[in-house]
Amino acid sequence: MSAEPSPQSPWQAATITRIEKRTPRVTSFWFQPSRPFTHLAGQHVDVRLTAPDGYQARRSYSIASAPEAGAAVELAIERLDDGEVSPFFHDVAAVGDEIELRGPLGGHFIWEESDGGPILLIGGGSGVVPLMAMARHRTLRNAAVPVALVFSARVWDEVIFRDELIGLDDRLDGFSLVLTLTREQARRPSDYSRRVDARMMAQAIERLPKAPRLAYVCGSNAFVSAAAQALIDADVPAGIIRTERYGV
Amino acid sequence: MVTRGFFSGRRPPSDTDARIPPGQYLEQGFPVLSAGPTPRVRTEDWSFTLKQGPKPIKKWNWAEFNALPQSKMTRDIHCVTAWTKFNTPWQGIMIDDILADAGIEPPTAYTLALSFDGYSTNVPTKDLVTGKAMVALLYEGKPITPDHGGPARLLVPHLYFWKSAKWVNGLQFTERDEPGFWELRGYHMYGDPWREQRYSSDP
After folding, report:
1. Would the pLDDT of B199 be above 60?
2. How far apart are CA B52 and CA B161, in angstroms?
3. B9 to each of A5, A57, A86, A89, B6, how far by Cα in Å?
4. Mind listing the pLDDT tens digit for each residue in A103-153?
5. A93 contact residues in B (CB cutoff 8 A)
């Protein structure tokens, strides 16, 4: 298990260099830090907003971009209607704005090529973001590590990074994408239309040449609890499962 | 640095302001965070061990542990992921009472809390005694659910909540301040929310 203490990471200004809508509820923002850093796939940054009266709000966001993708880090931010930070990004933030950020942070939910595989990635909704960084890292490194990504979304149009993920799947280079839609029929013959369960996990594992060395699960608490239990029911050892939970 | 266009925010009511540490927001729910799957620990398999280094001092099973004097603590808790929750009511065994039952004074200045899933976290011994911390068995009067650390979790409410180890099964007194799971992964050795000691680089 990797155990790398985070480097010194004080708050710094970062400039928004690009904004791209990914789905109706998720938009990607690219932040160019004033002091660039190299992250590991799966790490997050903290973002801090400051009002004129000094009030501050901070949140953690996983990095979607691969470490090899350049100094600007991509954060894919889901709009939470009752949130106080995500509506700011969706409604107010513009290219050229400076935002305070600190990172990279996190030393557990990370994957590097040298950690090996096969790896099983299970993401629910915006929980796919740190897994996307891992998939992109693998691709940019031309790594042969076998990967199966199970991505659960409510509907087809909420599949974040959909075209890119299907493109990775089509390369047939050891990356396998399993989509499951919980509120719509599957669009691809190999995909599912139900919540994740042990049988789906077992079938995802069958796409790998041998049993996974590591499994990463990210999403809401309810999703992570269900997916981790499904993995255990599919005989994946608890000790190889790493989880990251968003929100309540 | 003032953020352009950020005015509103979710300011806490002014009468609660003083109870919310810097960088935290008030949460009404009770979010769940952990590094791995939720272990299902049956109380018949449960035990709690006090150790000095590798050497066991005393071990309790579930019934023996529950027979120790129980206390209540209602406290505000602060998670490093920036939520603060007010008035969380816990019941369990004060660390003072565990030590008294073992018939010992704290033997060293540092402690590692150990958990069933292999998790560990370090806390200075002085932050566990004199009424500051307990091994909690009940939350809101009911057994703690597995996702919140049941059957038993450490409760050290004055430090960031990752120090309040879920699924706790022992305390190990150590000669040195030895980092635990998150402390080896970039988080602060002490974790005082009022000094915003989130990450290892924080003063």
Report:
1. yes
2. 24
3. 32, 7, 11, 12, 7
4. 999 889 999 999 999 999 999 999 999 999 999 999 999 999 999 999 999
5. 5
B122 exposed, middle or buried (CB, 10 Å; 0-12, 13-18, 19+)?
A: buried
* Interchain pair B11, A58: CB under 8 A: no
Which H or E run includes A3?
A: none
Helix (H) or strand (E) holding B123: strand B120-124
Neighbour order of strands in the sheet with B168-174: B55-61, B47-52, B168-174, B110-115, B120-124
To the nearest whole Å, the CA of B102 is away from the closest chain A CA by 32
The superfamily in CATH containing domain A12-105 is Translation factors (2.40.30.10)
Say if B28 is an interface residue toward chain A (CB within 8 Å): no
**ipTM here:** 0.83
Of the partner residues A51, A243, A247, the one whose CB lies closest to the CB of residue B37: A243
Name the pTM for this structure.
Answer: 0.90
Q: Has domain A113-246 been given CATH number 3.40.50.80?
A: yes
Q: Is B199 on the interface with A (CB under 8 A)?
A: yes
